[in-house]
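Q: Could you fold this chain for me?
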Amino acid sequence: MDELRTFLDWVQVFWEQISSVGWTALGFAVALHVLKIVLRVRAWQNIIRAAYPRVEVPFRGIFGAYFAGVGVNSVAPARGGDLVKLYLAKRRVAGSAYPTLGSTLLVETIFDFFVAGALLVWAVRRGILPGVPDLPSLPAFDWSFVVEHPRIAAILGSILLFAGILGVTWASRHVWEFWRRVRQGLAILGDRRAFLTQVVSWQLLSWVARVAAVYWFLRAFHVEATLEVAFAVIVVQTLSTLLPFTPGGLGTQQAVLLFVLAGVASKSAVLAFSVGMHLVTAAVNVVIGFGAIFVMLRTLRWRRKVGSEPSSAPSETPLPG
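A: Sure. Below is the predicted structure, expressed as structure tokens.
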């Protein structure tokens, strides 16, 4: 409750600063944010195409599935939107199976892993991030909870581990078919050139759009806009979603940015920027994402639809090899 109260106080600071927002810069930021996601959609479409070369993979269907997942992730914790992505993509790709589509999402994160890792190394070497002794003092639920309640965190971790073991046990009953479908989703990795030109190239452009979007968000809220500051913000965004207890790292992201940008701008300016960027991007994601859900499902009750889908639907498409 203290963390929620703190975040609501931060939102109040944002509303007090809203009259000074640079709306032109904010418009550029929103456009670049949407462009970033569209570029990622193209990369995912190419990954799915490689997994199902004999099946049509429509861009509009994958676009809707991806944006729907992004929209749900903006309001639901634990990345529940990824389930929505898979459910809607399966409806648009004839004969597809969840293990295959799930592994395509893993392929989509490979380049991100290396870029995020490089930025994290850069941030550590620059001494930008808070140290372990600073974590309990940060008003961030995700991190301070683990530090202040290690026993509870250990129990929750054990439960997650047990659930993972159960999942592996279930999969082992169908191990050959399961892993064959998983490997099908990794097909594009077997062609290095295709992976670089059809996936990495689009994702590199997506990262460029992401950095540019953060730059214009900084300008919109009158925080020093430099490449270094934009990189620092992206590092915090990445780390704040490692423990997905809140949608999009809500609260954690703002708390850590206060620490990281302490010497860059005033506390009120950092809060206005951080909360404003979070609220604006979440609103855009929700509007487009839930719009896509309504168009594709004719309802906004995505939980009922996804929850009623059989988890082990057979693939109708012959697997290559």
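A (continued): The chain has one domain: 2-307.
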